[in-house]
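One such given next:
>
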Amino acid sequence: MNEPHYLCKSKHFWQPDWCERDFFLASPNAHTVFYATIGGLTRFFSFPESAWIGRILVTLVLAWGWTRCLSQLLLTPWAVLWSAWIFLCFAACGNFSGEWLVGGVEGKVPCYGFLLAALGDALRRRYLLAATWAGLAVSFHPVVGSWGLLAFALSWGIQRVIDAVRLKHRLIQAGVLSKERPQEKIDSFADKHQWPHQSLGSFIWPCVVLIVLALPGLIPVYQLLTESVSPETRRAGTYLQVYFRLAHHLDPMLFPLRSYVCYSLLVIVWLCSCRWGGRTNAKCRLDHIVFWSITFALAGILIGWGPRPPMQMPFYDQRMNLLKFYPFRLADVLLPIAVAVSLVSVLERTAFQATSNKTWRAYLLHPLWLLTLVFIAGLWRAHSMTETNRYSLEDRADWLDVCSWIDHNLPSDALVQSPTNGWAFKWFARRAEYVAFKDCPQDAAGIVEWNTRLKFLQKWFEKNYADEFYSASELKSLRQQTGLTHLLTDRLGPLELEPIYRNGTFQVYDLTSLD
């Protein structure tokens, strides 16, 4: 999960002097709205407390949006819950591009909640409310929110054109268009048959609300995308983001075969569900949006598929720049939701009605038992796959111990380099890091500097270990080149310097003693 990433950024957002020397925390913010709202918990609570409170808050937003949307798609309130169980089971089995929805606190969780709420109110034709929730979705996570908004806009616009063509055809059949003042006849006919006909004002005001509420999230992202850097730096930053740091999310050629197989099966089930009985206008609207999300994902696959190294692909720069906008993540979530809704719809129309009689046999064969088993299996699967850290139980205890010692004994302005497999160092030790692989900035200049620091440390450790020993002069040179005050190691060594703290796994060295 990215909770250490989000919550440490949030604390620095509210207290800039906290870990002020940390390279990642000092980089430009891409999720300002999250830091300014939910991230404000870090002002009053510890990181674990902020995480738990934040999880509750964002999950409530998600549950609210889920209910607001799916209550328009399913017949009974319980069916909304059952669809969530099936979706959680799908999510526990895996995903396509690494997208997740439930289990942590970060900006995309309330974003999806607001997107679902926006769709629910759009299905009710409450467009001003829908615009409000959509604007908040974009603010909390501009990438996810913008993809969701684009999918809705395309489905809505095309449906309007289709409905207009159908209406014109019906009017021609009725002979209305051959009479005088055809526009008045069209309007009269549209009102009579409940055509979704809105005035210009009813369209403009939702757009205004949407833009105003989305701007707080869009402005920081616009600043990141238009930062003043050289074309070479921008190109290098995009390459590192797409094909190195976030390749498991952005490069379709790195997605496992299992993901392609499982999501192809979901697409087949979803396509079959489009032909099943019980279709409603609301379900059709959802399917149109899911169709566009799948279209975005397929476009991403076509854009990213090609020879490796990627520089050999035609139009490599343009394709790389398109991939960095995560074209797969919307389908990663919406497709399992659509399949879950379709399955529950079938149960509503068939199995639940068939077992409505009050016999013991009907009670024992009720599909609710199967849904309950699906829910339990999803929980078990999710628990078995959870990786809370990268250490064994013994090493984890040593990691928490050394981080606690650093928190209580090192100066607040210390700059530490932790091991490459370190886990949430700033969360536990509350000290600045020189560089960490997990904590990559999102601006081009910051990404390039992040990579430069990683490469520098790797080369320094390899070069100076030629004699299988790190001398005091070499360590002093490291301090002069990086500004490091302390070094936290596990397997690194031996060093010509006595540690100031040591436990069974880790050692802390004071590089300032070499000055």
